[in-house]
Amino acid sequence: MKDVGKSIKRKEDSKIKAIVMLSGGLDSTLAAKLILQQGIELIAVAFKTPFCDFDCGKGCTYRVRDVADNLGIELRTIILGDEYIELIKNPKYGYGSGMNPCIDCRIMMFRRAKELMEKIGASFIVTGEVLGQRPMSQNAKAMKIIEREAGVEGYVLRPLSAKLLELTIPEKMGWVNREALLAIRGRSRKAQIELAHKLGINEVPNPAGGCLLTDPAFSKRLKDLLQYNPNPTLNDIELLKLGRHFRLSSKAKLIVGRNKVENQKLLLLHSPSDFILEVEGFMGPISLLRGIVDNDLLNLAASITVRYSDAPKDRSVMVNVKSEGKNWKLLANIIDEDKIKTYRI
């Protein structure tokens, strides 16, 4: 890292600028507020990965935008797409409880934050991290590893836990008053909620978003995908977030919608070579069959689709099939419940 201290030495008439990694949750909001109170200009950066949980109200993106607007700071968004999928396959520092590579994830984010910091002439990075809040990535050892690997050692300020951590360059340079920073530790949010009220934040946000990689069910789907498809697309990843998943063969998978919204999303995400199945004459799911398929697998997919429809269970029904611009019908029976479990991911 270039010698930031020499290139941005503070002058009487200058204003220090910093990057704040903003999630939209309470901790990063408080961290930003504390630094703004010290007269430092902030530019917020939000990261979006294919595995962000966007089912939080209006969506995490909207929450971050609202927070940035309320703070009166500029917001920039960095998309981590294909490179993040590559990271998931073989993280240097391993996984957490699910498929979450928390340390490697933070390293990637800090590297990109560093690039933005240097591009806009900012002096350091601010985060809402709290010592001991997350066991894998928010302990002192992990924080040091992350900073070293990202090339930002000493340039990351964590205002909520700063007094429990080593002095950072912003503190040493006198850009930030350490005495005005805090010493919060652990997973309780009591101290943060009290601080929020003191700072006039009356609508206390919930913990920001959520990472699907920590969800056991989603992690199981992802493991299955990577086992049979080592080079998934972003479209493949998006499908993991929808419906019920069935592994029909090493080269074919079926996704069955659970409600109207998921049915619509499956139709939007399907590719021309996919098979779309829907029971004729009865309420039921849209099913998407992807992969290399023969007649036996197509009939199996049709039977599973019937199982989750309102069609009578004691007789055969017609299933409409669409693929490659063609439409046809299959006569299908409901599949035995015990058998269906053998395919469920």
Overview of this structure, please?
The chain is α/β, with parallel strands linked by helices and 345 residues long. It has 2 domains: 4-198, Rossmann fold, CATH 3.40.50; 242-341, no CATH class. Helices cover 36% and strands 17% of the residues. The chain is built from 13 helices and 11 strands. It has helices at residues 4-7, 26-36, 60-71, 82-89, 102-120, 140-150, 169-172, 190-198, 216-228, 234-239, 260-269, 295-307, 337-341, and strands spanning 17-21, 41-48, 74-79, 124-126, 156-157, 244-249, 252-256, 275-279, 287-291, 317-323, 326-332. It has a 6-stranded antiparallel sheet with strand order 6-7-9-8-10-11, sandwiched between helices. Helix 3 (60-71) links the parallel strand 2 (41-48) and strand 3. Helix 5 (102-120) crosses helix 6 (140-150). The two termini are 45 Å apart.
The strand order across the widest sheet is 6-7-9-8-10-11
Q: Which residues form runs of ≥5 with pLDDT under 50?
A: 3-13, 54-59
- Overall average pLDDT: 91
| Succession of helices and strands | HEHEHEHHEHEHHHHEEHEEHEEH
User: Helix fraction?
Assistant: 25-40%
Distance between the termini: 45 Å
